[in-house]
Amino acid sequence: MSCANKSRREFLGTTAVATASLAVAPGVMLIDMAHGRAPEEAASSSVRWGMLVDTNKCDSGCTDCVTACNTENGLSGDTSETGSQWIRKVELKDMRTGKATSLPMMCQHCAEPPCVDVCPTGASFKRADGIVLVDKHICIGCRYCVMACPYKARSFIHEALADQNPDVPRGKGVVESCTMCVHRVDKGQTTACAEACTKAGHDAILFGDLNDANSEISKRVSTFATKQVRADLGLNTGVRYQGI
Amino acid sequence: MMISLAKIRTLLNWKMGALIAALLTISAVSVASSEPESNSGRVPKPKIEIEKGDKCVEDEDFMRRNHMKLLMHKRDETMHKGIRTKKYSLQNCIECHASKKNNSVLGSNENFCQSCHSYAAVKIDCFECHASKPKVQPSAGFFHPIVPPATPGVAATDKESHGLSYSMRQQMRSNVNEQNNAGVTR
Ligand code: SF4
Ligand code: SF4
């Protein structure tokens, strides 16, 4: 049998199996297609991960998302000059009406990220699915991106670290910011902050695929008025807010 | 000027002598290195504590020479494309090679990574950022996490030995189901 024949057979074989499993368990297949990616499959631009924060549901005293993020990513959470924090609660007050708003702020995962534009080494980059990351293997710690980010989302690791979470490598001398929990997202899970918020019963943070018309986040974004913080900068952020 | 035959003969003899001496030295070294206790030879060798590792993801020889290339390739694939297969992943290396004594690949000159690197005076900086300990405590089982125990008489297919795809998908599915049950909307 020739090689070409063999691979054709194999192809036919796998197709048959795929079709069969689709017929046997359509629900399972659909879940996989909607949320999960096989580990060997690269992130694709058909997806744009994003988060929607409903500020009406965000409780001003609550810091569950911050705590969850610190725990998940092994951050100190301390707000001193050398402390690490990727998400903060921001308190806003309308001076005329007195209306107070509390909301979580993290890296906004801009579609046109200024941090990437200014990075001289290419360490700051945007993944195909919209998640903006720092490749710490390449980062030289110059902190141009820290200056360029309009959201003050980036910080620098000043001190040597030990006992990192194996899923979240972090070390001295490089810049870091919210990774949109990329290690969880790649496994088909939601972000730590969104999960914690839901667990606490607030349901203020919604994570999902902005490109998928059927996703909860897309439906909400297309139904309700949502805002990008500093929309005037035209960065097309992946994190959007409702009620500000 | 012509060299006399006698001169050529002495030259040859000298060369042969040197060759024989060299051969003798080589065989002496190889005798020494084939002795069981690694430090009994004249050349000290690293003492590596190998906990699991009856079977690595590639041949031992290949891994010795190329583990850094595999890791480098893998790191770029993971970081930029989000490809998170277990084969060649640093996390997976650590899961298998962490010592049972201190649950790490570093710490003493017998620990898996540190032994060779300090012997060869090659600085490793992976662990300034990456955890040197596995996420899960090493299990009692002695099998490589991504090389399933062979069933006698059944040849492992490529899919079984390399792809965690099936079990990973199962995992993913159960995660998704868990979240759906917990009412997480995404
Ligand atoms: S919010 Fe800041 S760090 Fe995040 S992508 Fe935009 S510019 Fe970069
Ligand atoms: S997505 Fe993950 S890294 Fe980003 S703020 Fe939320 S918990 Fe932190």
Automatic annotation (TrEMBL), chain A:
> What InterPro entries does this protein's entry cite?
4Fe4S_Fe-S-bd, 4Fe4S_Fe_S_CS, DsrO-like, ET_IronSulfur_Cluster-Binding, TAT_signal, TAT_signal_bac_arc
Query: What residues does the 4Fe-4S ferredoxin-type domain cover?
Result: 49-80, 130-159
What one GO molecular function would you report for this record? metal ion binding
Q: Which Pfam families match?
A: Fer4_11
For whether the record's keyword set contains Metal-binding, the answer is yes
Which keywords appear in this protein's UniProt record, sorted alphabetically?
Answer: 4Fe-4S, Iron, Iron-sulfur, Metal-binding
Q: Which SUPFAM superfamilies match?
A: 4Fe-4S ferredoxins
UniProt entry tagged with the keyword Protease: no
What CDD domains does UniProt report for this protein, alphabetically? PsrB
Q: Which NCBIfam families match?
A: DsrO (NF045797), TAT_signal_seq (TIGR01409)
Question: Know the name of this protein?
Answer: Molybdopterin-containing oxidoreductase family iron-sulfur binding subunit
